[in-house]
Design brief:
The chain has 191 residues and is of the alpha+beta class. 23% of the residues lie in helices and 26% in strands. The protein has a 6-stranded mixed sheet with strand order 3-4-5-6-7-8, with helices on both faces. A two-stranded antiparallel sheet has the order 1-2.
Amino acid sequence: MVSTIVTQPAKLSLERFLELPETEPPREYIDGVITQKPMPKGTHSRLQAKLVSVINQIFEAEKIAYAFPELRCTFGGRSIVSDLAVFTWDRIPFTSTGRVPENFVLPPDWAIEFLSPDQSPNLVIGKLLHCIQHGSSLGWFLDPNHESVLIFQGGKQPELLRGDAPLLVLPELDLELTAAEIYSWLILNRT
């Protein structure tokens, strides 16, 4: 009887992963496995750009919060790239010269993910759960096909919202949004 021995390649360490050159679209390190994010398509791109614009137009000038698109955050043994990572101003790890640093080694206050057609919902939800388990206050999972927002908070059951129900945002942010409003951004005025 002949037996075949199959060996798994050794997992790459987080430190070694962080030494690799960045790619486009970016790669993520989750539990020793490297995955590549799908390239954003039209719906994802529009929602991401609009939400970044809305948050930053309201809260940057007053130094309340800032939304970073596609920002790598390394914490809790993972290195992930949220579609949007929102930090309250006091948690942005500015350098000694007041600049935004290259590396963020902490979870965002609010992690936002948009489900893309080629993504596994469980993988994306897993990223949000990791953020919540490691200190993020809030996570949003937007599913454009369902026009819904699944909201995650520490110590609470996820809440699925659609239509005109007000969406939970960080308490520091005076911002009122609904799923209906967010998904209405997908209709551009063509005249």
